Amino acid sequence: MIENFYSVIPAGGGGTRLWPLSRKSSPKFLYDLTGESRSLLQSTVDRLSVISKHENILVITGQSHLDSVIRQLPELNSDSFIDEVEPRDSMAAIGLAAAILQLRHGDVVFGSFAADHVIEDKDGEFESAVKKAQDAANDGYIATIGIKPNSPSTAFGYIEEGKQLVGGTYLIKKFVEKPTEQLAKKYVESGRFLWNAGIFISKTSVMLEALKIQKPKLYDGIMKIANAWDTPRRLTVQNAEWAALEKVAIDYAIAEPVSKKGMMAVVPGNFEWTDVGDWDAIATLIQKSDTANSCASGQNVTLGNSEFIHTINSHDNIIFDSQEKLIVLLGVDDLAVIDSGDAILVTKRQIAQKVKDIIPHLEDEDLDKFI
Amino acid sequence: MIENFYSVIPAGGGGTRLWPLSRKSSPKFLYDLTGESRSLLQSTVDRLSVISKHENILVITGQSHLDSVIRQLPELNSDSFIDEVEPRDSMAAIGLAAAILQLRHGDVVFGSFAADHVIEDKDGEFESAVKKAQDAANDGYIATIGIKPNSPSTAFGYIEEGKQLVGGTYLIKKFVEKPTEQLAKKYVESGRFLWNAGIFISKTSVMLEALKIQKPKLYDGIMKIANAWDTPRRLTVQNAEWAALEKVAIDYAIAEPVSKKGMMAVVPGNFEWTDVGDWDAIATLIQKSDTANSCASGQNVTLGNSEFIHTINSHDNIIFDSQEKLIVLLGVDDLAVIDSGDAILVTKRQIAQKVKDIIPHLEDEDLDKFI
Lengths: 371, 371
Description:
Number of strands of chain A: 18
Mean pLDDT of chain A: 94
Structural class of chain A: alpha/beta
Order of helices and strands of chain A: EHEHEHEEHEEEHEEHHHHEEHEEEEEEH
Radius of gyration of chain A: 21 Å
Oligomer: homodimer
Strand order of the largest sheet of chain A: 3-2-1-4-10
Distance between the termini of chain A: 40 Å
Largest interface: A-B, 31 and 31 residues
CATH class of the largest domain in chain A: Alpha Beta
């Protein structure tokens, strides 16, 4: 447990690369995608419960997902849930959480952690990195934890380390977008680049001050809502102000401009992390952890109602069965076969990133109910 | 129309290579597998309606399929349906039909045609072959129609032609089992071998006499049931005699021994024929007919609720959607993706013959309800 540390989980929507399971109406964080009988959201709360008391955890989610989220997290009380009228991207969510925390508890250090990432941390490295980031936050920085890359991935943004502040904490020189493969290799070889895991740790006052400077209108709207939150006026103000909140990611609203002012710090995190971005990433994640335990190879990854999945002469497939429907694979390798109940996807793992291209196709065909 | 010609359709079970669609409870002849909005059984009746009046057509099927069969064939009256208490293979079915026809109409010529084969006959070649076989039947032969092979298939049995009887009709020298590929090539090159399409055409008296000689006990059982058929005793006798009927194919019970006596004739049939044996055969059949019309290539074959099937960068797949469930294929080729409602199969077209191996797997796993 880290003393006086508050955890915020923005559980927005998204995840079109995990279609047909992940939908507008049921985003990926609600699903068990690691075969451990806990949804990504539940695993996130489990992980944060090690560093924050339950009453110090906030979950921000869309009103359409609120019921599912509350049902999945019986350990949290109703004060822990912040509902969004409509999606307004990460800055509004994190800003509102910071403001509510500050009004409830005064100026405290909080961290924001995605609801749909997987972290494998056997040696307490995650907690230790958060503690270092807390120190940097207490020194006035907005801190992040950057993941030491184990491959030149082109699926993530990178963070370039600047000068060392104290042992294991660096100034951020700059944030860089998802690179080309060539560039990614250079980054990894340099040893100075980390994956951006979208973690932000700061004092509430520092976050809100940065927001006030960078996005004054958004700050005003958020403060109006936050001031009304724990009062009978919550609903009225929420409904009156929400539509006007700017839709912008914290990366663009705060991280990039503040890093240019030399006010952002990064702690390199030495643990396994993945954003569970697509079906291939999930399969690789599970195969890796299974191999560590059982030395199996060429195995298939089965999720959902696994007992209804049967594979014959088939290897390295990922199969998700959300119903009690028999799924049989015969003599096929490296496929993703995903049955969400009302839709089935069959594709190759190696092109799993392209699953997001199905969404515009469905829009063109007036199949919005499947999006 | 061929005068005084009776048609018999044994519609038994089977078709394990078309799992998961074809089941014990709903065999393949009940499905539209050619995309023409007629089941294989309906197409068979359509084809035979050209050569036999509706009242001269008999369909023999299991009691468990009788309702479905009657519903699919409203053009036939109740006398046309012969129900089997339990499957007893083709000899019992064809023998009983022959006996019932003889008792109802005297000694007539009839032909037996499988319920689940597809014949494409644009030039009346099928009718013309049946007429020639009828002539041979009137001369006392048990005749068959052998298909001129267009490839050295190892999926069918072959018939070797003997000496010519009259123009276009030959004695059968012998029946041969499914050959190796090498042997199949020799057969096709010789020009004297035909595919065995399981068609038998003879006088009822000749068929029953052959049965009496080859399988006297089976003959006795069948005659008892046939004599009771159009009487109030039908049900009692049927139930009393059925279990003891020998389970044997007409090929072994009659065709092979009778051909050795020089009493079987074959008419080479010059039309497109397929036994719709597996998913690849169905895809090839439909692709061939579509290409003839539209010159399309690399297209996917979609069956069932085709409007719910979407393919993106995917080619030469066969997809069956039996529900209103979205099926999306992204970047995959040459697959069979079959959704029967309670089960989904994903396999490669080139190993479609191996789908039958799934059945023993399901038996081992106590999943009999999916067989």
